[in-house]
């Protein structure tokens, strides 16, 4: 039996999962615009360089957060969805969550591959895993194309996820949104 003063709540994600989720959201929601803007023509070089530096060096942090989130998920499984949620919606919710994890991992890998195969540095990360891939323009071009495709899919999946969260939190008020909110 869980006491009223216990931090455990079977209807909410654990605190670590919530903190990691919202930190990931913050980084992804700053990395996507940086990535979209940094490739625009006519930007001042200093701004473009800063955006590239931020974008390519935040990716591995996002990967680390995803790995930590998956570890936390193993240790502390997510709370069950409300029984009022139709089975199809529950299946879609689970699929979207796993797709988000997969897309974030694939984006970091394709981005890192694009940078290294393109012969560019990952300033913060080069001491740890620089030189994993040698310069290879064809590989860099393929990785860039994959990264661009995955980015578009991620934006769509995030929009669906945010839309569903808003629906449950603002309209249905069925407890789905409060499983992850507040962050602490």
From TrEMBL:
Domain Cytochrome b561 bacterial/Ni-hydrogenase: 12-182
Statement: the UniProt record of this protein carries the keyword Aminoacyl-tRNA synthetase: no
Keyword terms, alphabetized: Cell membrane, Electron transport, Heme, Iron, Membrane, Metal-binding, Transmembrane, Transmembrane helix, Transport
GO biological process terms held by the UniProt record: respiratory electron transport chain
Compartment(s) of residence: Cell membrane
Gene3D superfamilies: Transmembrane di-heme cytochromes, Chain C
Molecular functions per Gene Ontology: electron transfer activity; heme binding; metal ion binding
Necessary cofactors: heme b
SUPFAM superfamilies: Transmembrane di-heme cytochromes
Membrane topology label: Multi-pass membrane protein
Principal subcellular localization: membrane
Classification via Pfam families: Ni_hydr_CYTB (PF01292)
GO cellular component: plasma membrane
The keyword Cell membrane belongs to this UniProt entry's keyword annotation: yes
Regions that span the bilayer: 20-38, 96-117, 149-171
Family stated for the protein in its record: Belongs to the cytochrome b561 family.
Protein's recorded name: Cytochrome b561
Organism: Alloyangia pacifica
Species lineage: Bacteria, Pseudomonadati, Pseudomonadota, Alphaproteobacteria, Rhodobacterales
């Amino acid at each position: 039996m869980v006491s009223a003063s216990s931090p455990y709540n079977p209807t909410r994600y654990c605190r670590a999962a919530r903190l990691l989720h919202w930190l990931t959201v913050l980084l992804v929601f700053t990395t996507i615009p940086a990535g979209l803007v940094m490739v625009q023509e006519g930007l001042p070089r200093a701004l473009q360089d800063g955006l590239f530096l931020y974008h390519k060096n935040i990716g591995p942090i996002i990967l680390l957060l995803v790995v930590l989130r998956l570890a936390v998920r193993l240790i502390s499984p997510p709370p069950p969805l409300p029984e009022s949620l139709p089975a199809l919606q529950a299946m879609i919710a689970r699929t979207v969550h796993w797709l988000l994890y997969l897309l974030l991992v694939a984006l970091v890998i394709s981005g890192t591959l694009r940078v290294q195969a393109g012969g560019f540095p990952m300033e913060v990360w080069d001491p740890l895993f620089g030189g994993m891939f040698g310069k290879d323009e064809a590989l860099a071009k393929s990785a860039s194309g994959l990264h661009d495709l995955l980015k578009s899919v991620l934006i769509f999946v995030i929009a669906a996820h945010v839309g569903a969260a808003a629906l449950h939190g603002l309209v249905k008020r069925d407890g789905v949104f409060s499983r992850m909110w507040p962050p602490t």
